[in-house]
Amino acid sequence: MTELFNEEKNKNTHIIVERIVADMDDIVKKVRFDGWQATTQGDRLVQKELRRSLLQYKLHTDQELFDKAYGYIKQYY
User: Fold this and answer.
1) Which of 1, 32, 43, 55 sits CB 3.0–4.6 Å from 60 for a disulfide?
2) What is the structure's pLDDT at 66?
């Protein structure tokens, strides 16, 4: 996931990538459950928490970043 955020980082983005990834990892681990990907409730919950996590860093409006991060989370968590 660190690679994904490093790709999105630019000169105008003053963000500590490791902190973002650690925050997202922590949040997702707290809200996910076995089989969450196959349920509407789990899917919505993880997406909501991901968006909330991105909001902390003012990245919540970047849909491409959200989609990439969610795809990664859905595959590896």
Assistant:
1) 55
2) 93
Cβ-defined contacts of 31-40 (< 8 Å, 24+): 32/77, 37/74
Cβ neighbours, 10 Å, residue 66? 16
Taking the C-alpha atoms of residue 42 and residue 38, their distance in angstroms, rounded to an integer, is: 8
How confident is the model over 42-75, as pLDDT tens digits? 999 999 999 998 998 888 899 998 999 999 999 9
C-alpha dihedral (52, 45, 22, 17), degrees to nearest 10: -50
Question: What is this structure's pTM?
Answer: 0.76
